[in-house]
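Hey all, sorry for the wall of text incoming. These are the two entities for the joint prediction.
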Amino acid sequence: MTDEHVTQEPQAEPEEQVDELTAAIRERDEYLDALQRLKAEFDNYRKRMARDQQELAARASERLVRELVPVLDDLERALEAAAEHEEAKLEEGVGLVHRSLAELLAREGLVEVETNGKFDPHSQEALLAQPSDQEEGTVIQVLQKGYKLGDRVLRPARVVVSQGSDGQ
Amino acid sequence: MTDEHVTQEPQAEPEEQVDELTAAIRERDEYLDALQRLKAEFDNYRKRMARDQQELAARASERLVRELVPVLDDLERALEAAAEHEEAKLEEGVGLVHRSLAELLAREGLVEVETNGKFDPHSQEALLAQPSDQEEGTVIQVLQKGYKLGDRVLRPARVVVSQGSDGQ
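and here's what came out:
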């Protein structure tokens, strides 16, 4: 559009300068147009992202909720067995629920904190130190399991640590 | 902008035209600069969003996993009670696990599908139709609970529907 206007202009001025002006105006208009379009695109993208993020968080927990529904079913069956004093069925049911939930959590990346060997202050919490024939600083008992998700410690293992047998 | 320039053009003296060229070049450079900066900003934003989204999904499931760890603890205590044939403790434990999990899922927005009254094909699945003294099309038995998350049916309730008492 701009080009047409400008090139129709009277040729009274030195041709070179007109060409230069024409080119500058054309480029200016192209950049402005590109700038406005990019701004609009960016705005839309930002809006879409805000929506997407809410949905993404909702979907991530929805997936887990969906997987937990059968666990809830199994628990309810176990409760029914309990109400009817069918002990074998109750025990079996609890075993099943435990396996399902443990597997589900493992798929999400949950792993137990290791407790074999030396006490590790990053993933373990020493609640007690006791004399023992194990080397000093060795974990001798686990009071509560700890869990990690990837590298992150969700809960430290609560342990008893050996003081060694020096004192005895 | 373009129009103003163009309409001033015919009367332009050489000097004015130089000014006009200078102005057009300055504007062109400003727009180009703004365009390049916006592009860079957009690129960074896109990259950050890609990272954020992964993290967001991870955080959403991490939150749930974290809440499920105590449920797993309770289940393990119930299993220990089962192993030691402490039936009362086992039953109590299963009740506790059920309550914890049901409450956790309710907080996530899980609700049971209603099954009082008329059969609802959107949230229920009729596995059987049986003659009964209930009005035709009434749900008379729930074979498996259904669940909704918000408006979405995660699983329809599986029900038996009354055929009415006409046939009898």
